[in-house]
Amino acid sequence: MRRERRSLGFWLLAAFFGLFVLFLYGPISTIVILSFQGPDGGLTFPMNGVSTHWFANLFERQAVGDFGGSFTRSIELGLLVMAITLVVSVSAGLAFRRRFRGATFLFYLTVASLIVPSILIGLGIGLIFSIAGWQPAWYSSALGAHLTWTLPFGLLIMFAVFNRFDRAYEEAARDLGAGAWQTFRFVVLPLIAPSLVGVALFGFTLSYDEFARTLMTAGSFNTLPLEIYGMTTNVTTPVLYALGTLTTGFSFAIILICLATALILQRRRARHGSDAGKGV
Amino acid sequence: MSPDGAVGEVARGGLPRGRPASPAAARFPRLRAGASYLQVAPLAVILALFLVIPILTIVVVSFWRFDEYRIIPDVVLDNYSYLLTSAVTLGLYLNTLKYAALAWVLTLGIGFAVAYFLAFHVRSTTWQMTLFVLCTIPFWTSNIIRMISWIPFLGRHGLLNQALLSLGLVDRPLEFLLFSDFAIVLAFVHLYTLFMVVPIFNSMMRIDRALIEAAVDAGATARQVVWHVVLPLCKPGIAIGSIFVVTLVMGDFITVRLMGGGQRASVGLAMSNEISLLQYPAAAADAVALLAVVLLMVAAMMRIVDVRKEL
Amino acid sequence: MTRKTKGNTGRQGLSRRAFVKSAAVAGGAAIGSGAVRGFPTIWAQNIKNVTLRQFGTGVSNLNAVAEKCKQDTGITIQMTALDSDAVAQRAVTQPNSYDIADIEYWICKKVFPSGNLQPMEVKKLAYYDAIVPIFKTGKLTPDSVIAQGTAPHTVGFVEGKNSTSFAKQPTEWMTLIPTIYNGDTLGIRPDLIKKPVKNWRDLLDSDYVGKASILNIPSIGIMDAAMVCESLGKVTYADKGNMTREEIDKTMAVLTEAKKAGQFRAFWKTFDESVNLMASGEVVIQSMWSPAVAAVRSKGIACTYQPLEEGYRAWGGGLGLAKHLSGLELDAAYEYLNWYLSGWVGAYLNRQGYYSACLETAKKYMSADEWGYWMEGKPAQKDILSPDGKVMEKAGAVRDGGSFEERMGHIACWNSVMDENSYMIRKWNEFIVA
């Protein structure tokens, strides 16, 4: 009886979920279709022939703007943000496991960092650099602006991780004579490693696509989102869609790799006898 | 914007195990505290440099004067007096709140259903992760490109209208699909529903399944279970998700500009207009006001939930 | 991405620049920072190592120009394309982030007084005499009427080397060297519009409810709006380029009414948006830029750049030198400016449908047929090709609006910064919210 009712609910919800996924992929579908525009085609329908012209064009010099340079810059910045987010959140996450004076304040500050509108952070940092006469650059001002966005996410995830973390392992390690660093390196780190993949992914993705915070802090050279925005001041071509299609393909690949890594880590951990890897 | 990290963790995690005080910490409180300070120092420094100081700067600059090409240190209230007396301000805030409210209701409804499906109907962790990842992939394509692509999707001659026409559902293209409040809210729902799904899902995964069994055994219908058991227990997740969605919408400017076809405005957009015309002090005053409104809204939501405990 | 130099980070750029500066001190100590052409051997070698950072909108920050410049002069130009808002911001707030500013004249009116740019010596500009008189006296021909608005010549010169106040007459100190300019008008989809379009007021014609668009850059949009209001006879202006508060209010009232009646499909801000709106059929009549019309047409979609009775709304852009430039870099910048005016770039810009500053030099780089089509309003003898070799117009085509003199001779007003600018912008914001 209950089983049947559930299965009806299941199908309804599954259909709803399917529609939701379709909705998420709606714009992507136009991107993919239109990236195969003919050489004379534009950014909108109708299709003007079918070709792979724009994929080849992606690797040629554009009339305006420079995919290569800005893409490299965005990747470098994303990796930098990712690394700093990872180290700082893990470190802060460890600290927050104990009580210390100012913990609550710092926690609310972190939450504030999450809710302060992006454009405000960009404006503030841009103003400081402008008043002080410093030169903004992607590796200084923009890096800072991105960190105010990624660190709260990183820290919140670490909270979620450590709230579920069984201290018995650490204590066992310590009882067996391991130092603080050894305990962290050989016990804690392997246990939290799968979640770190999540923190890293978060850090990179949030930075890679950040626009509002970068707008006023990027300095002389553009990151990829800014470059694309700048390119729209001249004739843009379906080469943008080709970029979108490739990025989507590339994302599938990266995410599959991450998924696999997480699974392998989980398996290994399961083999080593932890219960943390088991589902509910 | 890929929430799979948290999800992966949540999917794997069990119930929180509490925070028993470590005996070592009890033995050497001062030493431990020192280590804590060292460990949070990087976070504190980064937030001080790139969050606190910039916001203080904005507050200071909001009292400055400006002319065509520079900002002049001063203490004037002009920026605020215009802000507080102009009819535009009220219109802007009402408009922005309207978007926030609509986006919130829709993301909440959709987010709850999706999270419910993933938490209660998808049993295997691997599947949960895979489905989440499937949802996040569209967000890896630059947002600017995705925004441009809404035009051929929703436009007068776009994919959706053509589909509707060929199915005979409409006899002429629907115009309200693009460059309208509808389009703006649609884009918000598209961008931010996942921010709602993740925390709700997180809450759902922490619900003791025995509670549901008990409710069902006591004769509750599925609807009653959702309404009286699941929903109350999901409050923290809903609150966290709402904080995300509301703050993101309140501060947005690019979505409103691109999807509204430049014909709609929000607080963030007005601010970005002022910035683009080098009226930084006016923008700063706007920013201070917006920050105050957002903080009030968040404070209200935080009353419902202790975010830190509920993660 | 074919050019390695593009990948340079600012940091590398700086260290090399520091090196260049010290080289300039060493090499230039004896010579002084004199005229470039005086010492060809030493300078020419050094100049090859100079990198100049230029920013501007995508309209003229073309990679092809940087590449050709490298070939011809050895100077590396790093181009950064930004949207029009960011251009003004960058020019004013980050003066050290660029060496060459590519800005519009109305932005110059705001930027130059900030002291971030240095005027250039007219005597170092090899092609000064060839620059179209519009940029010196405001008159295309000696008997033309000077158009309203921020006409380029009114902000084209300053009193002296360290002056930031604009001169009324041409002086020895120029603020920007003009690069491109044009007269803008309404673009229409002749396949979707049945009746003839002759006046700016047609933008608000009830036939095009939900299918019209204007520019959402306030300083430019207000001028379009003024052209429409004047054409409708609803507002009379003493000077459209410098409206009173009352005139601004009236203009905005007309626009707001039209907006509420659903006249506009969207407002556009970037070049690309205007192309997409038109090509997708969302809009059938809107204020447009000439190359945007060409871009729509190149997709095989009919689009006309319709000349109107009231005349054109004109704009112009130019290159300015950052204040911090000195020594060898400054000399390289002059070398670049002179190269810019020497014709190749001019021809390139003309072929896009813009006009270049030194027509004589550009003419040498264009075929007689191209010159006839683009500049003289003659029917094309052969297919007209775009700078990258695509067919833009078939043989026999005639350019909309006719010859250079016909177009630039019918300028009604220039894009402007008004005395009541702040007020206007607030009203514009109200209009967008309405």
How is the topology of this model organized?
The complex is a heterotrimer of chains A (280), B (311) and C (434).
Chain A: H1 2-34, H2 53-57, H3 67-95, H4 103-115, H5 118-132, H6 138-163, H7 168-175, H8 180-208, H9 212-215, H10 224-231, H11 239-271
Helix pairs in contact in A: 1-11, 3-6, 3-8, 3-10, 4-6, 5-6, 6-8, 7-8, 8-11
Chain B: H1 4-12, H2 23-27, H3 29-61, E1 65-66, E2 71-72, H4 78-85, H5 87-121, H6 125-136, H7 143-154, H8 159-166, H9 181-205, H10 209-217, H11 222-251, H12 254-259, H13 267-276, H14 280-304, H15 307-310
Antiparallel strand pairs in B: 1-2
Helix pairs in contact in B: 1-6, 1-9, 3-14, 5-9, 5-11, 9-11, 10-11, 11-14, 13-14
Chain C: H1 10-28, H2 40-47, E1 51-57, H3 63-73, E2 76-82, H4 84-93, E3 100-104, H5 105-111, E4 117-118, E5 120-121, E6 173-174, E7 177-188, E8 212-215, H6 218-232, H7 245-260, E9 264-268, H8 271-279, E10 285-288, H9 290-298, E11 304-306, E12 312-322, H10 327-341, H11 344-350, E13 355-356, H12 359-363, H13 368-376, E14 384-385, E15 391-393, H14 404-408, E16 411-414, H15 421-433
Parallel strand pairs in C: 1-2, 1-3, 8-9, 8-10, 12-16
Antiparallel strand pairs in C: 3-12, 4-12, 5-6, 7-10, 7-11, 7-12, 7-13, 14-15
Helix pairs in contact in C: 6-7, 7-15, 8-9
Query: Level of helix content of chain B?
Result: over 70%
* CATH superfamily caption of chain B: MetI-like
Oligomer: heterotrimer
Range of strand content of chain A = under 5%
CATH classification, class level of chain B:
Mainly Alpha
Please tally the helical runs of chain B, counting DSSP H or I stretches of 4 or more residues: 15
Membrane topology (chain A): Multi-pass membrane protein
InterPro entries (chain A): Bact_Polyamine_Transport, MetI-like, MetI-like_sf
Transmembrane segments (chain A): 12-36, 77-96, 105-132, 138-162, 183-206, 239-265
Pfam family, one (chain A): BPD_transp_1
